[in-house]
Each structure stands twice: as structure tokens, then as C-alpha cells.
Design brief:
CATH class of the largest domain in chain A: Alpha Beta
Shape of chain A: globular
Oligomer: heterodimer
Low-confidence stretches of chain B: none
Number of domains of chain A: 3
Helix content of chain A: 25-40%
CATH superfamily of the largest domain in chain B: Beta-grasp domain
Low-confidence stretches of chain A: none
Distance between the termini of chain A: 60 Å
Structural class of chain B: alpha+beta
Radius of gyration of chain B: 16 Å
Largest sheet of chain B: 5 strands, mixed
Largest interface: A-B, 63 and 59 residues
Strand order of the largest sheet of chain A: 3-5-1-11-8-9-10
CATH topology of the largest domain in chain A: Aldehyde Oxidoreductase, domain 4
Number of helices of chain B: 5
Shape of chain B: globular
Structural class of chain A: alpha+beta
Order of helices and strands of chain B: EEHEEEHHHH
Chain lengths: ~750, ~160
């Protein structure tokens, strides 16, 4: 009954849109409480060392300052690490704001000012003088990579490298064609447009209502309750609107801790909003160094894949992401060796940023594949087609679906790939060199545990609720669509209630699993409502549905009817009236199918085609055309789906050409902690981008057939841009971003 | 600290407020007047989220002091819709899915309104350069161009 697709799959405009275009949507920093105080954080100006003394006298004298917190007077919080570990915490010791005199990274909070106005708090923070005993920081991954280590405790089992298969070294040595190179990627910063903020309403009897910028309201609630020993029934965290996050708001940040700490200490409502600069010291995509070695026979069939990845983590936690394992499963190869290590630097703990691991690892792999195609002398797309594999060789599992051939075919056709001249520097447009490059993308299609509640009123109104988040992704809209489909009602008849911690249990929004998880839970709860309705209908005298099973009925135009014959049925209003109800409500719980997961692995796939035009005298690269062909199962909403991919592609262009956290390694400090100097793509950097969703049916990846779209859009883009730049210029640049200076200074290969 | 009395016109209505000499117009609009449609993305004039039209000029309100608004006209996103009727730019942003998380959206709408006031029929390149001072991290920009083109054609026809 759920494939009628009148609403699901259609390009419904986002239901939260009208609030956003009128400025009426309220984000975490936009709530007011009577008598509220404001907080501002003073940040460390060294990257490693100890605080000797903090002089707060001048700051305290400023009018409006209420209290200044440092490690010397911070109220007590939980002692045990386990209380500080949020739902997505890492192996190691979670960061505790203002805990002691240690400085572990540049920009670490060292003092917190509370004042009557935001201006007073900010100005006072600027008057705090901290005396340090600075130590020499190590922040350079290339210089420190010899100190790398295998993480002693795995964050997740699937992040560990698969066991080696075959004999990769011997196969590499024996193969006629081979490439081997190092790829260096800098740290990147998420920079969602919204500043991190929390507004805490201090209520009677120790109740708190907190507006937080988070990708998981229940994660923030549980963290706060764990750290401060609060009763979870007395704390509500809300995140109705989240102004982008891209992974940065998965773990609770210091603003939340400090806002709640001061609120409890002073018995006042509090607001803390970060500065843009402060956000550069939160989680970030770690810098990494990778060595990829590929070997092939004369026809381009892969003989050996070796991938070694090292990325940054902090002194106190072992951040881990799956960088290199993709190389063992993207293509067919029987001789594979993958290794993965971390290096501790004096920097803040990295974190998940859009397609964590894959964005970096696939960038290296797919650049190496392009290099291999040149070495073998075949078309880079053909090389990938020849090495296609419909099995996860890492885990030795079948794959639920992989319409990657369709991505290759439809993407290449839309792009006009067949007209590509293979030789670098052979295509021109006036003064510009033209380059065409491509790459593949892959991301795991995940589903987690989740719950949702659906309520159908006698008047036909539907309410969907779950503690899910919409970080700009379109969660509100797709959940509304899924419910509207079951109840055959317009989407305006559905109220979607999400973004609140006291709603049905939902994990953090991340990893592209929200649509699959909460979407499936909503569908299951809606089906449960239909089943309950059927039960009530069958209790009515002379029910026309007396013999029907739940599989045989559906809702059509306000009536519960036989699927095979819509003439037979009863109006929902009549069923509820007969049962003496004004609504039917059901809750459902979903989770991954463990049995299926033993045999199958699920991934989304893509093929990205890029055209660049380069004025070689200036070194300026313009990405003039992108075609991204994506296989991600069922598409719930063509508009929000396309948006997700476009955004991912543009962030991938940023990764290739612009984005780089610049550190002065002498001081260990970030130099470009603002949007003027940390470059993200702007409107004028972007030209034509075309998105194709290829047909892909998959009932195993999730009950509603979706695989998720938040990550796959960025994966492979940086490599496709880099490969296009090589095709245009003959210059292979293996350290991102590919800025003007690198193009001007590199030599073209012959 | 004594407040400075400032008299302005905001979205066509007379508005008076008291502010401190160190308060930016962004802070005044958001914290004192509750116009939360004016977003803060950086506070340093880099992102365009706090764009407003001051008299006839597009500015970042984080780079203007509240006191400087004396005697001037301010237009924010809150003044774009007429009652329930959305401005064509707002309508087209919705239809083209030219927004996601929504933080950059009000700034884009105001910047586009200013652009179309000065150039009712901009080329794609003029739109991209005209809106290059507004950063968006979600949408990938393309749909914003389409929405502005579409709105421009509606507004020319009206």
C-alpha cells in the first residue's frame, strides 16, 4: 500500500520553509527569558602548557559583570569520565571546560564571564589576563607522522582495517603498472552558518528548559544530566531549528556546559552564544596523510591495493573515522592491505564532518585511480567500470544494491564524457585550459534504532512526533510526507513535532541515517494506527471490513477501505465515533535488521564528473560544470534530496580548492579563524551543477527503501576536481586545497 | 551607562530605541527589538547573514553601530511579506528549495531584494556576483540563482 507515492517522492516544498523565509523560525540563541544573563568565553592563547594565574580584576570592575568563572572557582561537576561521555563520545577522556590549569589546545576556554548584557560579557572577557607557562606545541601532522599509533580502543569495530587479503606487497611488486603516492589533506572546519548557542530557562524546582544548537536533543539532555547530576525528567532540551551543523553539533559543546553551570550556580536563566572564531576550536575534520599504492595488469584490472592512513587526534581523546577501508571495497581486488593510525597533536579533538573518513580517504583513492588510469593508458571511467564489484570484499558480504553502473552511464551521458580527449592539456576554450575529471563516491547506508509516535484525529489531522532533528536536511518535510502517504491526506494536514528531548527516543542526526531510521519509525507507527483503526472498525456492527486483514486495507479519502475495492470501507470519523474516540495514537520502534546485516552490507554510491577551466597565467581554477549521479535507494522528496547533493558537491569543491585550517606551527595557533580567511565557496565560485538520482530499489537497506543523502554528495568531489585539474594542466597536486600558488609552482608531467 | 536615543523607520514603521554607544545595529535589532530574522553568522562582516537595507544601501548590520541608524530607514526580512502574502522572492525561495537550515536565508532575501531594486533583470552572472557577499553552507547556491531569476521575472511582470 505504500508504493502509491502520491506524496512520497514528489517535490514537496519544505514545510518549515515559510517560517524560515519570513524570519519567524527561532534558533537556539533567539529565545528570551525574563532576567536572563549572558555568558562569554575567554579563550586560551597558547596551544600547550599551564595556566599560572588569571587576572580578572579589570573584568570584574566592568559595569554589568555578575561573575567570572575560571578553573579556580568553577562549581563542581561529575568526577567520573563515564558521566561526561555523550552518546557519540570517543575513547579517551572527554574535554571538561575549566577543569584545571592544563591547556591542551589553542582556543580552549580558560574563563567564562557572566554579565547583564552580551556586550558587558564580551568586553569583560577581553579584559581578562591569563599568565601561562607555555610549552612547545606539536601541531604539524607531516612532521609528527612518525609518532603514529594504532588506536588501542576502537571507536567502532567497522573503523578498524579489515584483515589483509592475498599478498598485496608481492602483487604490487609483480604487476606491470603501478602508482604510489602520498596525499596530504589539511584540517577543515564545518562552519555551519549558525553560531553555537544555548539559552537556558531556569525554572522552579530545579527544572531547566534548554534551547541548544545540537544534532540530538536527547544527547544534550543526557550529557547535562550526567555531568550535573540532574533528574532527566526535569530537563528538556529543544532544537526546533538548527542552523546547519554537518557533524559539528553531534557532541555537546562547552557553551552548553557553561550555560547550564552558571544557570544552576546563579539560579538565573542564561544565554551563551559563541563567536565564529570560537567555533574553529571545536571539532573539525582532521588533517591527514595517506599513502595509496595501486597496481594493475595491462587491461587495468586491479592487482593490488595498499592504503595507509594517518590522521590527527588530540592529546586527550582518540578520534577515529573510517578513512581507508573504502579502498578495500570500492573495487574488485584480491590483494589488499589497509592500515590506519592516529597521531596526537596539541589541537582540539577532531570530529565527524560531512562524510567523515570517506571524504578524505576516497579523495586519495580516487585520485590514485586517476593516476593509475594514466599509467595503464585507459580512460579513467573505463578503469572503474572494469573493476566493478558487487560484493563487500572487506567483510565478505553481499551488497543490498549497487546501481553504480547506472551512475557511470547516466552521469557520463549527461556530462558528454565521450567527447573527452585523453591527453592532458589537449582541451582548450580560448585562453583557458579545459580539464574533465571524474571520481566515484561511496558511503555506508546506515540505520539506527529509533522511535516515533503517530496520532490520527477524528477530523483527519495527523501528528507525527519523535525527538529527531532537522539540521536543514528536510526531516520535517519527509516525515510529514511519509505520514501523509499512509493516511492519504495533504501534507498540510500533518503536524510534525520534532526537536524536543521529551519526544519518542531518537539518536543524534548524523551519518545520513535519519531518513532511514525515523522515517521507518513514522511509517511503522502510522501502519500501527491503521491496524488499530481496523480493529475498531471490525467491532462495529455489520462492518464491511469484518473479514479484512491489515494487509488488505488502506486509507483513502478519509475512509478505511479494502485496497482491492475502495467502495468497501468505513469513514474514519465513523469508526472513531463508534469506538468513542477522538483520536488513535500508536508508537513504534525500529532498528537495523541484525539477521540481514550478517549477510548484507549497504552502501550508497555516486559518480561525479567535473569540468574545470583554468587560466594558466593566473592559476585560477573555475569549476564550470559538475554532474553528480547518485544511487541512494528511494528518493522521498526530489527537492530536498537534490538540495542535499548540491550542498555536498559545493562543500567538496571547497575541499578541493578553498578550505584549509591554517596553523602557525611555531605557536600551534589557528591563524584563519574567521570567514574572511577560511575560505568557503561563495556564490560566484559556483557554476552549473547537475544532480541525477538513478533508479535503485532496495528493501534491505531500510524498511522504507532509503539509504540517506547527507554524506554521499561530498564524497569523490575533491578527487574529481583534482583529476580535472590534472587533465587541464598536466599537474598532479596531491595536497589539498589546490590553490593558485600550487598550480603556478607545479611542473606539468609529460 | 547612558543610552543614546535613536529614532528610525523600520520596515515602514516609526521606531525609537535606546542603545549604548558600543552596540551594533545587529545587536539592537536582535536583542532590543526582537527582530530575529536578522541573523548573526560572524559579527565581522564576512558572511552577509545580517544584511539589511539602510536607506537604499545594502549593509551588514554587524558593521553599523545602532546609533548610526538615527534618522534612517531600515528594511529587514520581517518587512518583506505583506500580511500572509509572501514577497515574490520569499515565494520563489520556497518553490525552488533555495533554503535549507535557514540562517543565511533572510540575508539572501534582503540582498536579492536590493539587487533587483537596482537591476530588475540581472543575468545569472550578475546574480552570482551580486550575492557573493552572502555565504551559504547548505544549499550549494544554484537554487538561489534560479529563485532570484524566477522572482525577478514575476516582479517585472507585476
Amino acid at each position: 500500500m505504500l508504493d502509491r507515492s502520491k506524496i512520497v517522492g514528489s517535490p514537496v516544498s519544505r514545510i518549515d520553509g515559510p517560517l524560515k523565509v519570513t524570519g519567524a523560525a527561532k534558533y537556539a540563541a533567539e529565545h528570551f527569558e525574563p532576567g536572563m544573563l549572558f555568558g562569554h568565553v575567554a579563550l586560551a592563547t597558547i596551544a600547550a602548557g599551564r595556566i599560572l594565574a588569571i587576572d580578572t580584576r579589570a573584568a570584574e570592575r566592568l559595569q554589568g559583570v555578575v561573575k567570572i568563572y575560571t578553573h579556580e572557582n568553577r562549581p563542581k561537576a561529575a568526577y567520573r569520565d563515564s558521566k561526561w561521555k555523550d552518546a557519540v563520545a570517543l575513547p579517551g577522556h572527554p574535554f571538561r571546560p575549566l577543569e584545571n590549569d592544563r591547556v591542551l589546545f589553542d582556543g580552549q576556554p580558560v574563563a567564562f564571564v557572566v554579565a547583564e548584557t552580551p556586550e558587558a560579557a564580551r568586553d569583560a572577557a577581553g579584559l581578562i589576563h591569563v599568565h601561562y607557562a607555555a610549552e612547545t606545541p606539536n601541531t604539524h601532522i607531516v612532521a609528527e607522522q612518525h609518532n603514529s599509533y594504532e588506536p588501542p580502543v576502537a571507536r567502532m569495530k567497522q573503523f578498524l582495517p579489515p584483515p589483509p587479503r592475498g599478498d598485496a606487497e608481492a602483487a604490487f611488486a609483480a604487476a606491470p603498472h603501478k602508482v604510489s603516492a602520498d596525499y596530504v589533506l589539511p584540517g577543515e572546519h564545518h562552519n555551519p552558518m549558525e553560531l553555537f548557542a544555548a539559552t537556558v530557562r531556569f525554572e522552579d524546582e530545579g527544572r531547566l528548559t534548554i534551547q541548544d544548537k545540537t544534532q540530538g536533543s536527547q544527547n544534550s539532555r543526557d550529557y547535562v544530566c550526567g555531568v550535573f547530576g540532574l533528574d532527566p525528567d526535569k530537563v528538556i532540551v529543544k532544537n526546533d531549528f538548527v542552523g546547519g551543523a554537518f557533524g559539528q553539533a553531534l557532541r555537546p559543546k562547552h557553551h552548553l556546559f557553561l550555560a547550564v553551570m552558571a544557570s544552576l550556580d546563579l539560579s538565573r536563566s542564561m544565554k551563551v552564544e559563541m563567536t565564529r572564531r570560537e567555533m574553529f576550536y571545536l571539532s573539525w575534520r582532521p588533517s591527514c596523510v595517506q599513502t595509496v599504492s595501486l597496481a594493475a595488469d595491462d587491461e587495468g584490472y586491479l592487482q593490488a591495493v595498499l592504503h595507509h592512513a594517518v590522521h590527527t587526534t588530540s592529546r586527550h581523546e582518540d578520534y577515529q573515522e573510517n578513512v581507508a577501508n573504502w579502498s578495500g571495497l570500492a573495487y574488485k581486488c584480491d590483494n589488499v592491505k589497509i592500515s590506519y593510525e592516529l597521531v596526537k597533536l596539541d589541537l582540539a579533538t577532531p570530529g565527524d564532518m560531512r562524510a567523515p573518513g570517506a571524504a578524505s580517504g576516497v579523495a586519495a583513492l580516487e585520485t590514485a585511480m586517476d593516476e593509475l588510469a594514466c599509467e595503464v593508458g585507459i580512460d579513467p571511467l573505463e578503469l572503474r567500470v572494469r573493476n566493478f564489484v558487487h560484493r563487500d570484499q572487506n567483510q565478505d558480504k553481499a551488497i543490498t544494491s549497487k546501481a553504480l553502473h547506472a551512475c557511470y552511464r547516466e552521469g557520463a551521458e549527461r556530462f558528454g564524457w565521450v567527447a573527452r580527449s585523453p591527453t592532458p592539456r589537449s582541451m582548450r576554450d580560448g585562453n583557458d585550459l579545459v580539464g574533465w575529471g571524474m571520481a566515484g563516491g561511496i558511503w555506508e547506508a546506515m540505520m539506527s534504532k529509533g522511535e516515533a509516535k503517530v496520532r490520527l484525529s477524528a477530523d483527519g489531522h495527523v501528528t507525527v512526533s519523535a525527538a529527531a532533528s532537522d539540521i536543514g536536511t528536510g526531516t520535517y518535510t519527509i516525515l510529514g510526507q511519509l505520514a501523509a502517504e499512509v493516511f492519504d491526506c495533504p501534507i498540510d494536514a500533518v503536524t510534525v513535532d520534532i526537536g524536543r528531548s521529551n519526544l519518542p527516543k531518537t539518536g543524534v542526526e548524523g551519518g545520513s541515517w535519519t531518513a532511514a531510521t525515523t522515517g521507518s519509525a513514522v511509517q511503522a507507527a502510522a501502519k500501527a494506527v491503521v491496524k488499530t483503526l481496523l480493529g475498531h472498525a471490525q467491532s462495529m456492527e455489520n462492518s464491511p471490513l469484518a473479514e479484512a486483514s491489515e494487509e488488505q486495507v488502506e486509507i483513502s479519502e478519509g475512509r478505511l477501505v479494502l485496497e482491492a475495492n475502495h467502495q468497501v470501507g468505513t469513514a474514519i470519523a465513523d469508526i472513531m465515533a463508534a469506538a468513542g474516540l477522538d483520536a488513535v495514537e500508536e508508537q513504534a520502534k525500529v532498528g537495523p535488521d541484525i539477521l540481514s546485516m550478517r549477510r548484507y552490507a549497504a552502501y550508497s554510491h555516486s559518480a561525479v564528473f567535473v569540468e574545470v577551466k583554468i587560466d594558466e597565467e593566473l592559476g585560477v581554477v573555475r569549476v564550470t560544470r559538475v554532474v553528480s549521479a547518485v544511487a541512494a535507494g528511494r528518493i522521498l522528496n526530489a527537492k530536498t534530496a537534490r538540495s542535499q547533493i548540491l550542498g555536498g558537491v559545493v562543500m567538496g569543491i571547497g575541499m578541493a580548492l578553498h578550505e584549509e585550517g591554517l596553523i602557525d606551527h611555531r605557536t600551534g595557533r589557528i591563524m584563519n579563524h574567521n570567514l574572511a580567511e577560511y575560505h568557503v565557496p561563495a556564490h560566484a565560485d559556483i557554476h552549473d551543477i547537475d544532480v541525477i538520482f538513478v533508479e535503485e530499489q532496495d528493501q534491505r537497506a531500510s524498511p522504507i527503501g532509503v539509504k540517506g543523502l547527507g554524506e554521499i554528495g561530498i564524497v569523490g568531489v575533491a578527487a574529481a576536481v583534482s583529476n580535472a585539474i590534472f587533465h587541464a594542466t598536466g599537474k598532479r597536486i596531491r595536497n589539498l586545497p589546490i590553490t593558485i600558488d600550487k598550480i603556478l609552482e607545479s611542473e606539468a608531467v609529460q | 551607562m547612558a543610552g543614546i536615543a535613536v529614532s528610525t523607520t523600520i520596515n515602514g514603521d516609526q521606531a525609537e530605541f535606546l542603545c549604548h554607544p558600543d552596540e551594533t545595529l545587529l545587536e539592537v535589532l536582535r536583542e532590543r527589538l526582537g527582530l530575529m530574522g536578522v541573523k548573526e553568522g560572524c559579527g565581522t562582516g564576512d558572511c552577509g547573514a545580517c544584511s539589511i537595507i539602510l536607506d537604499d544601501r545594502l549593509v551588514c548590520s554587524c558593521l553599523v553601530l545602532g546609533a548610526e541608524a538615527e534618522g534612517r530607514r531600515i528594511a529587514t526580512v520581517e518587512g518583506m511579506a505583506q500580511g500572509d502574502k509572501l514577497h515574490p522572492l520569499q515565494q520563489k525561495f520556497l518553490e525552488h528549495a533555495a533554503l535549507q537550515c535557514g540562517i543565511c536565508t533572510p540575508g539572501f532575501l534582503i540582498a536579492a531584494k536590493d539587487l533587483l531594486a537596482k537591476n530588475p533583470d540581472p543575468t545569472e552572472e550578475e546574480i552570482r556576483f551580486g550575492l557573493a557577499g552572502n555565504l551559504c553552507r547548505c544549499t550549494g547556491y544554484d537554487k538561489i540563482v534560479r529563485a532570484v531569476q524566477d522572482a525577478a521575472s514575476v516582479m517585472r511582470g507585476a
